Amino acid sequence: MDHNNFHENLSRIQVGELKVAHLINSVFADVIVTDTLNDDCKYDIKAEVDGKPVTFEVKEDYKCADTGNVVVEYESRGKPSGIATTEADFWIFRIHRGYKESDIHHFLIGTERLKRLIRENKYSRKYQMPHTDSKNKVYFFKYHDLIPTCYQID
pTM of the predicted model, to two decimals? Predict the structure, then answer.
């Protein structure tokens, strides 16, 4: 996959977000998805639980199978992004552990819990991605360290 092709990546991201919205509706009987493909930095999916709004940020990690890392972005093009700007209640990681659709797994974590892990330096390292024009800055979490703190939803 070419990680530098913005429009190709956007389309792939939107497909992933729609799959996650369907998964949320399938797994959580009391959650009703009301908005998908939100185009600001606040959240990706909005839902309701007992009439109250709940929001989700969806992050897809294609390289986890190769690297053993889960990436959490915090800066892009010199500006706060990702975990630094989200207003979502929960993050859902859509993690590729192989190269087939059946190798994709979904993990839910509360945004505040994820931020606490960052504050407590539970990530393995900070890194500036060299392969993109945006020079994204990210936290790398080791898969085997982060996933036990999450709830698998598939």
Answer: 0.88
